[in-house]
Design goal:
The complex is a heterodimer of chains A (56) and B (241). With 56 residues, chain A is mostly helical. Chain A has helices at residues 24-38, 44-55, and strands at residues 15-17, 20-22. The chains are: A mainly alpha (56), B alpha+beta (241).
Amino acid sequence: MNFLNFLPIDQEGKINLFGFSFYTDDLLILAILLFLYSQKINDKFLYIALILLLIK
Amino acid sequence: MNDNDFNEMIKKAQSMIQNNQIPDDIKALINNLQNSNNNTSNNSYSSAYNGSSNVSNNFNSNNSYDSSHNTDMNNTYRNNSYNYSSNNSSLFNRTGNASANNNFSFNSTGNANSNNNSSFNRTESANSNNNSSLNNVSSNNNFNSSAQNKNNLQNNNYASTHNEQTSPSFNTANIDMETLMKIQNIMSKMKNTSDDDMSKLLLSLKPYLRNGKKEKIDEYIQLIKMGKMTQLLDLFGGEKK
């Protein structure tokens, strides 16, 4: 059983969530951002780097 | 033939040399004769820095150099004294007006008197554009000859108004210990930023990214390091209100 089978992934590898299409690495970066924010990590440069990676 | 006749002959020969009427071989012969005459008469030598006068001193030395001192020479040396002596002849010319950007090095080795310092190295550089400011406050040239050793002693004492702007070397006297400590602190922090947690996280994330983003990871790490450096360099800023 593959976990990715439960995700709406199209043939290009994109995942459609809430009308937005994400790659898996984008979801990973978003998860890291949410985790850092929840842990109240105060490193703005790390946030900047992750956001830059996300919008690339 | 007495000494006066001999001197007149030499003067005539010098005038012919100046007019380029004598070939080089005879010029060298006349110079040798002139030097031998100067040695027998125990002449005292003197020279002065005059703006338009040319002073030619012939004395016993293997070393020959023409030093041209510009009036806009910002000398970076002070109180240089040098002594040299030898047994051969040389021509020593000093002219007051000369071209700018005067770089000369004078090295005297091997022929020095035992009482003198045998090595003399002086490099004089000036960046000037033929301006008129005179920075050589005083210069004294004293030539002494002794009959026993036949040594010629020259002492040049230069006292110049030291212009720090023209000095190529960085004046480290203005750095205090506080600044040094700040620099040390920054350097240590720079070293620590190479293996910080942020870089580790981004590098660990790298294998899970697409190829386009993998290439950007390193750039972003460098960018963020630069950003952190700006925070560290704020220590050098003015007073914080």
